[in-house]
Amino acid sequence: MTSFLTAFFSGTAQGAIYALVSLGLVLVWRGAGVVNFAQMGQAMFTTYIASQMIQNNYSYWTAFVVALICGAALGALVDLGLMRPLTSRKNSKLLNSQSMRTTIPVIASLGILGVLKSLAGIFWAGEERGFPSPVAPNAIKIGETNLAITGFDLFVIGAVFITLVLTTIFFTKTGMGLAMRASALNPEVTRLSGIKVGSVRTLGWAISGTASSLAGLLVTPRTNLSPNTLDLLLIVGFTAAVVGGLSSLMGSVLGGFILGYVISFVNVYSAPENVFIAILVFLLLALFIRPQGILGSKEVRRV
Amino acid sequence: MSKGIKPVRLKYTVIGRRSTLLSIALFILFILLSNQFDAYNQSQLANIATLLIAVFSITLLTGASGQISLGQGAIMAVGGYGSALLVTRLGLSMWLAFILAIFISALFGLFLGLAAARLSGPYLAGTTLVMALAIPSIAVRFESFFSGDVGLSVDYGVPPTWLSNLVGEISIEQWSLYVVLPFTAIALFAVLNLSNTRTGRTWRAVRDNEVSAALSGINIARTKVIVFVCASGLAGLAGALYGFRGLVAPSVYPTDLSLTLLTAAVIGGLRSIGGAIFGTFVIVFLPDIIEKITANIEIPETIGNYLPSLTIGILLLLTVILNPRGAAGALEHARHRRKH
Predict the structure, then answer these.
(1) Is pLDDT of B302 > 80?
(2) Which residues cross the membrane (chain A) (predicted)?
């Protein structure tokens, strides 16, 4: 029973982080039709910035906010500097080919990932370092008994919950959120009704950058920070996005939590070295059984 | 016999001659180069010859048929483990193991292709990336069979005496090149022929527009599976040759290997076989060149360590932004402009 509770609570906390990553991927995919493989590279970079600030005696929360802002800026920069010129280019013979239009942005995002990793290596020497958490990572006690949940788990779940609520309000209650949903659904019609689709798309990249930056800040107290730490998070986030349906925001969050439980239960009841295989099997099962995802609809699947 | 109709001379007989000549030319070029090089650069040359086969698999997969794979390194691992197990457990000859590695990884590619036929673009990229991480971890999971992180030690052995008698003393580095090079030449021959025949044209049709390809009577799913089988066979062969440099272990086939191969193909030009050769030379020799340039300049060690990967990353980005068709595309463009 104890191991079940441990797996359940750590699954919830991990799943919350995966949900953020997956949400970031889906936001960009819906807006720009690109899966951003550099996303967690961006998050790694902003987490290093936060870590540097904390070393220079800034408070955790200042570093936290600066990292989120840097995440947004980096996301917008990737879109403005690379993806927008790339996808808007019409005269290239290579990009006339259907399959290449989706392949080239993927390669471009891998290039960004490589550059960010090397830069992090150059600036911060690339060795693994710890990252502080604002709350003690000890188990919460009631009287004498240890609960299976730590204070840090609660902090993670709380932070993600607030983010998800804010995102939901943004998408359902604000004009900008509506514009974003509209331009994901039909860019042409949205443009004709006077909305700057390009700017809306860049905003999507910025929000995605912020979400993944937050995921980086939340995961590194547990995993430590190095240029490669967050690679696994991208893989899991991608799987979560596919499981939930690459085009559905709700689905991506749901997929994140499902993956959190899958990985956590494999970790507790099986062995940690089975995790990668479990992810691959789960991804293949999802693709074969329900390729449009749990909440995705068949028509919008761009396959 | 009717006089009027002459049988049309099939084009691919001519192509066959050209690709034979090119393959032999590549073989001779590498041998000549290796005679000029010292031992270290000879082993680098053997590396190029090995990785070239894997880059060819990307030229087929992404360049010719438009399917992206971020997991070619994992397929190399399949070929590597297949051949290493055949040699260490069953005592097969190395050469036979290399050839069987092609079939083992092609069979793997068949399963992968069946999955991939349903996917495209980012779905395929993500799935193959997950695979690139998961496959090497299988070796750790089933440690008793694959001997885990330690890996299997295998090597090219020693050069046979008849060859030493023929060409004189052969160093280990030269021998590794002599083992790999015939396979590279055959792979080049196969890839050149494939891209110029009906099969290659079918692949390009699927790449450029699936709907119109389907309307021309091409079975899209079957074509994609065939591409994956061919590309996986090549990658598996490369993986076997790569592992026999000394060790077959998860650390030999990391995720970065898959990305490096893709980078080589993109820098050189995804659609060009000459570009693949150029790109492979770049990624293997660039770190050495950078080291030589920076040897005279005082720079901190951390920068020196990451400078090659930074340069390769920037090269990849510049290629994608300025000329997605890579070095080969730029060359063609320049030639085209001079004509007019």
Answers:
(1) no
(2) 58-82, 103-126, 146-171, 232-263, 275-295
Write out residues 27-46 of A within 8 Å (CB-CB) of B. 29, 34-35, 37
pLDDT digits (tens, 9 = 90+) for B71-125: 899 999 999 999 999 998 898 888 999 999 999 999 999 988 887 777 767 788 8
ipTM here: 0.85
How many C-beta atoms surround the C-beta of residue B137 within 10 A?
Answer: 17
Question: DSSP for B298-311?
Answer: ---HHHHHHHHHHH
| Residue A251 · residue A296 · CB < 8 Å | yes
The angle subtended at Cα A298 by Cα A208 and Cα A34, nearest 5°, is: 30
Task: Provide the chain B residues 86-105 that lie in CB contact (below 8 A) with chain A.
Answer: none
| Residue B118: both structure tokens together | 């349903």
* B168: region left, alpha or beta (phi > 0 left; psi from -120 to 50 alpha): left
Give the pairing of strands A145-150 and B152-153. unpaired
B98: CB partners within 8 A, 6+ apart = B83, B183, B237, B240, B241, B244
Pairing between strand A139-142 and B247-248?
unpaired
Q: Contact B133/A276, CB-based, under 8 Å?
A: yes
Question: In this predicted model, what pLDDT tens digit does every residue of A160-213 receive, in sequence order?
Answer: 999 999 988 998 888 888 888 888 878 888 888 888 888 888 999 999 999 999
Residue B12 has pLDDT above 60, yes or no: no
